Amino acid sequence: MKNKGLMYTVIALGIILVGFLGFQLLHNSKDNKEQTVNDKEKVLTVGVLQFVSHPALDQIYEGVKEGLKEAGYEEGKNLKINFQNGQADQSKLDTMSKQLVSDQADVLIGIATPAAQALANATTTIPIVLGAVTDPKGAGLVESNEKPGGNITGVSDQPPVASIIELAHKLLPAGKKVGLLYSSSEMNSKFQTGQAETAAKKLGLTVERKAVTSTNEVAQAVQVLSQSVDFIFIPNDNTVANAMETVTQEADKNNIPVFPSVDTMVEQGGLATIGINQKELGVKTGEMAAAILAGKSKPQDTAVYTFTKGDTIINEEQLAKFNLTLPADLKDTAKLVQTAKGDNE
Ligand code: TRP
């Protein structure tokens, strides 16, 4: 009898123990599940559409990731980046934009004007941040730079065009005619070539325009311009930037100095520019996107950020090629670079 009583007690205790452990197990797994759901809720998605690959835009994208990270949004942790490259193809840009919208990105980033325009056509509700769009208003993306009004704001990379033309005139005082090389389809270039023309005329220079419709026409355009101009100015034009090696090759053959609007293109064999740091443009774009992700700002009342500070960048090899010396007042401030190896063979 006594033993039986003990046995029942042991069995009863056993049942209680098993029950308790089972309850704990269940409870824990429920906790874990809740944890996972919470973590998932915190992962936000940024859709990035880059127009094409060229060194400047690639650097901007690197900057975008850095800016997001500095603001606390890190890929693989609390951020998913859906990156698409349109390879300068309008139908690809449109399809990719629609896809990014239907994937319900929290914020979209368009790198370069044609990419931003494609995104703008795909949504009027998801916030879009412009990564280096020269003239957001002219491209029909905002009501005004100060008060964008809709779902779009971002960073403008308006280069100091007049100062670049003045720099060219200073380095080549005997030059009388400037060639403008750009793509007819890019809004950003149309705007800047107008500014270049005004600045050139002010200095008493004449202008010859040469617009291309694709990278295939760039070599011939440089050859044609080389027949009559003393130097070539290139705005922030994606099509020409994408064919910069060709530009340098043809210009070198014909002994024509080239003044681009961006440091990366001087590193690819241009002579000089006053340029905005491309990575910094991207960092600022990433920061603006982060502020929107965090609910701290809304595109409609966030002014477009315009960079004003440019560095004077001069290619030493090109300077020597044209037997030029660095003007004394630029000695302290100009950043001297060399043509990046392998870009120009
Ligand atoms: N500003 C260009 C646009 O609006 C994009 C761009 C940024 C760019 N950096 C560049 C183009 C450098 C050529 C070279 O589309």
UniProtKB/TrEMBL annotation:
Keywords: Membrane, Transmembrane, Transmembrane helix. The keyword Transmembrane helix applies. InterPro entries: ABC_SBP_TrpX-like (IPR047776), ABC_transpt-TYRBP-like (IPR007487), Peripla_BP_I (IPR028082). Pfam families: ABC_sub_bind. It comes from the Bacteria. The chain crosses the membrane at residues 6-26. The keyword Transmembrane applies. This is ABC transporter substrate-binding protein. It comes from Candidatus Enterococcus myersii.
